[in-house]
Amino acid sequence: MSLVGYARVSTSEQDLALQLDALKAAGATRIFEDRGVSGAKAERPGLNAALSFLRQGDTLTVWKLDRLGRSMTHLLQTVAELEGRGVGFRSLTETIDTTTPTGRLVFHLFGALGQFERDLIRERTGAGLKAAAARGRKGGRPIALTAEKVARARQLIASGLNVREAAARVRVSKSALYTALKDSPALTV
């Protein structure tokens, strides 16, 4: 049973010293690192190596929760996978240790709060979209084509140009022009 550390900084200019010192002081016997790797990236070679190295009874230790997970969902998933393999998880800053009953409780409370926050955001977004729709507003990107551009494109198509050529002349994408023409019954494509 060993304490395995993982440290990460987002840019190559940042220093791992603080994390490395804390992990060594906590008793980490082996430390894996990622330098210049954003937490949002799925591919983190140091983390992958650490996860491969861990054996049943080991504990993966990080300086802070955000060093491990890209999001709360990813963090929960990673810790659940570790638990399934008989590997503990420890975060030094938040003093969470899933090898203890209290640590597991605290970690799962964090997870529940994270899920609650995501649900609230989804609920507020849905309510905002409904309110906007009730006022006649439609979400998405603004329409690139004005009525004048659509009329000009129709003239160009009627004179023999194809949709791609007409779109280039009125300076819009071919797909935007197809959508505008499809939405307008005056000309079928």
Automatic annotation (TrEMBL):
<feature type="active site" description="O-(5'-phospho-DNA)-serine intermediate">
    <location>
        <position position="10"/>
    </location>
</feature>
<keyword id="KW-0229">DNA integration</keyword>
<keyword id="KW-0238">DNA-binding</keyword>
<dbReference type="InterPro" id="IPR006118">
    <property type="entry name" value="Recombinase_CS"/>
</dbReference>
<dbReference type="GO" id="GO:0003677">
    <property type="term" value="F:DNA binding"/>
</dbReference>
<keyword id="KW-0233">DNA recombination</keyword>
<feature type="domain" description="Resolvase/invertase-type recombinase catalytic">
    <location>
        <begin position="2"/>
        <end position="136"/>
    </location>
</feature>
<dbReference type="GO" id="GO:0015074">
    <property type="term" value="P:DNA integration"/>
</dbReference>
<keyword id="KW-0230">DNA invertase</keyword>
<dbReference type="GO" id="GO:0000150">
    <property type="term" value="F:DNA strand exchange activity"/>
</dbReference>
<dbReference type="InterPro" id="IPR006119">
    <property type="entry name" value="Resolv_N"/>
</dbReference>
<protein>
    <submittedName>
        <fullName>Recombinase family protein</fullName>
    </submittedName>
</protein>
<dbReference type="InterPro" id="IPR036162">
    <property type="entry name" value="Resolvase-like_N_sf"/>
</dbReference>
<dbReference type="InterPro" id="IPR050639">
    <property type="entry name" value="SSR_resolvase"/>
</dbReference>
<dbReference type="Pfam" id="PF00239">
    <property type="entry name" value="Resolvase"/>
</dbReference>
<comment type="similarity">
    <text>Belongs to the site-specific recombinase resolvase family.</text>
</comment>
<dbReference type="InterPro" id="IPR009057">
    <property type="entry name" value="Homeodomain-like_sf"/>
</dbReference>
